[in-house]
TrEMBL record, chain A:
InterPro entries: CENP-T (IPR028255), CENP-T/H4_C (IPR035425), CENP-T_N (IPR032373), Histone-fold (IPR009072)
Role: Component of the CENPA-NAC (nucleosome-associated) complex, a complex that plays a central role in assembly of kinetochore proteins, mitotic progression and chromosome segregation. The CENPA-NAC complex recruits the CENPA-CAD (nucleosome distal) complex and may be involved in incorporation of newly synthesized CENPA into centromeres. Part of a nucleosome-associated complex that binds specifically to histone H3-containing nucleosomes at the centromere, as opposed to nucleosomes containing CENPA.
Region of interest (Disordered), residue spans: 275-300, 345-431, 445-482
Organism, scientific name: Balaenoptera acutorostrata
Record bears the keyword Nucleus: yes
The protein's name: Centromere protein T
Family note: Belongs to the CENP-T/CNN1 family.
Comp. bias regions, Basic and acidic residues: 366-376, 383-393
Classification via Pfam families: CENP-T_C (PF15511), CENP-T_N (PF16171)
Subcellular location: Chromosome, Centromere, Kinetochore; Nucleus
Pro residues: bias regions: 445-470
CDD domains: HFD_CENP-T
Keyword Acetylation attached: no
Automatic annotation (TrEMBL), chain B:
Subcellular location: Chromosome, Centromere, Kinetochore; Nucleus
GO CC annotations on file: FANCM-MHF complex; Fanconi anaemia nuclear complex; kinetochore
Protein name, per record: Centromere protein S
Region ranges (Disordered): 114-139
Nucleus found in the keyword field: yes
GO molecular function list: chromatin binding; DNA binding; protein heterodimerization activity
Length: 586, 139
């Protein structure tokens, strides 16, 4: 801000204007006459200063302003420092002596005062206040006392003058670096005047003084001048995240995990009743290509145990077609929730619907998660009311809490221990996965509901579906979205308050997967019912109404307010903004 | 006055509800008897009562859902589409309903076709005698 352009005469605005006004008010008062003199001195210096170096002057003025605001006590010392910077005249140590000897500021003219300040002013960095953070209190106290004593008692000046001398080397360095500040003239003076005075009083004093200012025209780095290079802050080097390598890593890790999962699933003791079915399930797998899209389904939607039958028969063909097409849209699932609505609205066809449904389901999950945690019983009952009897809700309660935090981050590194191989090409896998799911649901529909409870991890789950469909040959199908389910399962195990077996966690993941599948299918059907191809919040509201979360007393917006963080609330609830605009647009 | 009316209304509704429940219970009892004779198993009274209670509750749920679905589709009338949406969970039920729906649609079409034919026949009949008359007159 202190880098004013040459020719900028707008003293009325900005800090300069502020300073000018302050000066004027100061001049109005008799008691502050001296202060006015200092201001005036500063201003005079500015006017006299060469055109091409407004920054220096501006800096000084800013320093002054800053000094004024926190404590006017430091004004004296700071004015000296600023004057030092402002002035371009040659300075010498003689000035210091002169200053020291002078004692009272009143006897000095503003001109000499500024000269002294420039001679003795410490150097501080606007950009790097931390690097010069040092024993601030000592010199500040000195300055304060100095101010109180009323301008220039000799004792007070002395300690203050000493530290500034140490900053000369910093100034020098600055001068070399900041050519455009036209410090050349100043630098000459400094070189002439200060070499003898370059004594390592230590950065402490300098930094203490400068820290009060937090201003310089210096670059962030002060390598040469800083006595303690360790204090200099370097900007953190951040490597851009390489999505490709990240996905590759996911694949590798999931590949490593896949084999043991297959073994585990085959040896599940409770899968006996489903032995007859599992082969059929596996048979269904190879039919369509099974890609990571199923993970989308899984991460995005879960099917409930009961009755996915209707969906199976009717939807089997459709989702296959739908999902076959989408590739990049599925990737959108990894995007944050704020993108959900944009993605949904921007796409056409049922393909995006599926994806959008998934995203909406995630969003819904978010919304309903907290609700679930709070109204667990109500949910369970409300769900049971539904003819389908979704029981996973209770199971997935605990793990849902993390979904909200997880989902916005999109995929992450964890693999779904259920062993489903997924791949970034989600589209091809989705239809196969969906079909497999539907078959599973159809087969396992009979013993659906009954006993599943959140606190009883595996046993009711064990009677459920066989291991998830997997294609032995489809190696590269690692779905980064599966990580969401893993996260959910971990949360679930956390909220269970008792240790959970790995099988139980897997079962929970499966249930969550099915639940989300079912959820997304419902959303899709609702949207189609309304003659739309895009899932909209109205569909979600209908779904939540059926779930019993949204009632005549509790609206969707109320739930959003209650459970979602502010960012999502801004995106969901229309709010009037300035300029007569409403966001999000309705 | 208002309170009395409200109270009377509530009572009426309640009695109406009870009558409906009784009707449902009666029907359920009959159905259970049929099933019992079919499977040679007996139904206890409590079972029939429970089933009828559940049926009644489910009917209420269905009604609410149907209304929600119709409103979601921005309609004020419940449609067969709403019913199909409701029944989508149960595969067999959905199939059954779709078949029935198709039958009904076909029936309606046939009826419409019949009506159209009747109209056409009448028109033809009215035209033919005229033509016949013309022909006769010509002859």
């Amino acid at each position: 801000m202190w880098r004013r352009e040459a020719g900028d005469r707008s003293y009325r605005s900005g800090w300069e204007g502020w300073l000018l006004r302050r000066w004027r008010t100061a001049t109005a008062g008799t008691a502050s006459l001296r202060r006015a003199r200092c201001y005036g001195a500063c201003w005079i210096q500015r006017i006299r200063a060469p055109r091409g170096d407004p920054g220096v002057l501006g800096l000084s003025i800013v320093q002054r302003a800053l000094l004024q605001t926190p404590s006017s006590r430091r004004l004296r010392s700071q004015t000296k420092m600023t004057a030092r910077r402002c002035s371009h005249r040659a300075r010498s140590t003689d000035r210091l002596a002169h200053v020291q000897a002078s004692g009272h500021l009143e006897e000095q003219t503003p001109r000499t005062l500024l000269k002294n300040i420039l001679l003795t002013a410490p150097e501080s960095s606007i950009l790097m206040p931390e690097s010069v953070v040092k024993p601030v209190p000592a010199p500040q106290v000195v300055q304060a006392s100095r101010r109180e004593s009323g301008r220039g008692s000799l004792e007070l000046q002395l300690p203050e003058l000493e530290p500034p001398t140490t900053l000369a080397p910093g100034l020098l360095a600055l001068g070399r670096r900041k050519q455009r500040l036209r410090l050349s003239v100043f630098q000459q003076g400094v070189d002439l005047g200060l070499p003898p005075s370059q004594e390592p009083h230590g950065n402490a004093d300098a930094s203490s003084l400068t820290s009060s200012l937090n201003l310089t025209f210096a670059t962030p780095l002060q390598p040469q001048s800083v006595k303690r290079p360790g204090l200099a802050r370097r900007p953190p080097t951040r490597r851009a995240v390489d999505v490709g390598t990240f996905l590759q890593d996911l694949r590798d890790t999931s590949l490593a995990l896949a084999p043991p999962d297959t073994v585990l699933e085959d040896t599940q003791p409770f899968s006996q009743p489903l032995v007859g079915r599992s082969p059929s399930v596996h048979h269904s797998l190879p039919c369509p290509s099974h890609s990571g899209a199923k993970d989308v389904e899984r991460a995005a939607s879960r099917r409930t145990w009961s009755s996915g039958l209707g969906l199976q028969n009717n939807g089997a063909g459709k989702p296959a077609q739908l999902l076959a097409g989408k590739v990049e849209e599925v990737g959108a699932l990894a995007m944050g929730f704020p993108n959900i609505s944009s993605n949904i609205s921007g796409e056409d066809g049922i393909e995006p619907l599926q994806n959008g449904v998934g995203e909406e389901a995630e969003e819904r999950m978010e919304e309903s998660l907290r609700e679930v945690e709070k109204a667990a019983e109500a949910q369970g009952s409300a769900r049971a009311e539904e003819p389908e009897g979704h029981i996973e809700m209770t199971e997935a309660e605990g793990s849902w809490g993390a979904v909200e935090a997880k989902e916005p981050e999109g995929s992450s590194g964890d693999e779904d221990t259920s062993g489903r191989t997924a791949s970034p090409e989600l589209a091809s896998s989705t239809p196969e996965f969906l079909r497999a799911r539907r078959l599973q649901i159809l087969e396992t529909a009979p013993p659906p509901s009954t006993a599943v409870l959140p606190s009883e991890p595996p046993e009711p789950l064990s009677a459920r579906l066989p291991p998830k469909p997997r294609i032995p040959g489809s190696r590269p199908r690692q779905d980064p979205y599966k990580t969401g389910l893993d996260h959910y399962a971990k949360l679930f195990s956390f909220y269970a308050k008792m240790p959970m077996e790995k099988k139980a966690v897997e079962m929970v993941e499966k249930c969550l997967d099915k639940y989300f599948q079912h959820l997304c299918d419902d959303l899709e059907v609702f949207a189609a019912h309304a003659g739309r191809k895009t899932v909209r919040p109205e569909d979600l509201e209908l779904l939540m109404r059926r779930q019993g979360l949204v009632t005549d007393q509790v609206s969707l917006h109320v739930l959003v307010e209650r459970h979602l963080p502010l960012e999502y609330r801004q995106q969901l609830i229309p709010c009037a903004f300035s300029g007569n605009t409403v966001f999000p647009a309705q | 006055m208002m309170e009395e009316e409200k109270g009377a209304e509530e009572q009426q509704r309640f009695s109406y509800q009870q009558r409906l429940k009784a009707a449902v219970h009666y029907t359920v009892g009959h159905l259970c008897e049929e099933v019992a004779s079919d499977k040679e198993m007996q139904f206890s009274k409590q079972t029939i009562a429970a089933i009828s209670e559940v049926t009644f509750q489910q009917c209420e749920n269905f009604a609410r859902d149907l209304e929600m679905f119709a409103r979601h589709a921005k309609r004020s009338t419940i449609n067969t589409e709403d019913v199909k949406l409701l029944a989508r969970r149960s595969n067999s039920l959905l199939k059954y309903i779709t078949e029935k729906n198709e039958d009904i649609a076909q029936f309606n079409l046939e009826r419409k076709a019949k009506k159209k034919k009747k109209l056409e026949d009448e028109n033809k009949n009215s035209v033919e005698p005229a033509e016949a008359g013309v022909v006769e007159s010509e002859n």
